[in-house]
């Protein structure tokens, strides 16, 4: 069964852009979308999710708070924080919860390193 990626962003357009970039890199991976932290947590309670792409700025909870909650639930899940807010503090906070940092706007090239690493981790976990 192919991995499932959860794309969390309050912008539908941003979810579409991230989904397309992910599909270019891993066309077989399933994609599920959430418009914020509350919906994302509901999804992970209902179905298995293998990795998460999380927007930083969301109305209900920032992406780093959500990443910390997902990290507590799924210690080995590959997680990326996606944001145009390229400040050292945000990058440091992403690293503190063991999440990758992907700048917006999301591109195939910008996502490639995270997706390659996630694919490796998921393959080694599945063996």
Give a concise summary.
The chain has 127 residues and is of the alpha/beta class. Helix content is 50%, strand content 19%. It has helices at residues 12-25, 37-46, 63-73, 88-96, 108-126, and strands spanning 4-8, 30-34, 51-55, 79-83, 100-103.
Descriptive overview:
This protein has 127 residues and is of the alpha/beta class. It has one domain (4-126): Rossmann fold, CATH 3.40.50. Helices cover 50% and strands 19% of the residues. It is built from five helices and five strands. Strands 2-1-3-4-5 form a five-stranded parallel beta sheet, with helices on both faces. Strand 4 (79-83), helix 4 and strand 5 form a beta-alpha-beta unit. Helix 1 (12-25) packs across helix 5 (108-126). The chain is globular, with a radius of gyration of 13 Å. The two termini are 13 Å apart. 34% of the residues are buried. The model has no long low-confidence stretch (mean pLDDT 92).
User: Can you count the helices?
Assistant: 5
Fold-level CATH name: Rossmann fold
Rg over C-alpha atoms, rounded to the nearest angstrom: 13 Å
CATH-wise, what's the superfamily? Response regulator
Low-confidence stretches: none
The N- to C-terminal Cα distance equals: 13 Å
Average pLDDT, to the nearest integer?
92
Largest sheet: 5 strands, parallel
Domain module tally: 1
* CATH architecture name: 3-Layer(aba) Sandwich
- Overall structural class, as computed from helix and strand content, comes to alpha/beta
Q: Describe the strand arrangement of the main beta sheet, using strand numbers.
A: 2-1-3-4-5
Indicate the CATH class.
Alpha Beta
By oligomeric state, this entry counts as single chain
What is the helix fraction of residues, given as a range? 40-55%
Mass-distribution shape: globular
**Strand runs, count:** 5
Question: From N to C, what is the helix and strand string?
Answer: EHEHEHEHEH
Please indicate the percent range of residues in DSSP E strands (runs of 2 or more). 15-25%
């Amino acid at each position: 069964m192919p991995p499932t990626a959860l794309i969390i962003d309050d912008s539908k357009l941003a979810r579409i852009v991230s989904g397309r970039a992910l599909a270019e890199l891993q066309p077989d991976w399933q994609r599920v979308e959430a418009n914020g932290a509350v919906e994302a947590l509901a999804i992970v309670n209902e179905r298995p999710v293998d990795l998460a792409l999380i927007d930083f700025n969301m109305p209900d909870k920032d992406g780093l708070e959500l990443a910390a909650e997902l990290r507590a639930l799924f210690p080995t899940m590959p997680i990326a924080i996606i944001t145009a807010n390229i400040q050292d503090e945000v990058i440091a906070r992403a690293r503190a919860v063991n999440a990758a940092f992907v700048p917006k706007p999301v591109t195939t090239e910008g996502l490639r390193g995270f997706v390659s690493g996630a694919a490796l981790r998921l393959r080694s976990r599945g063996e």
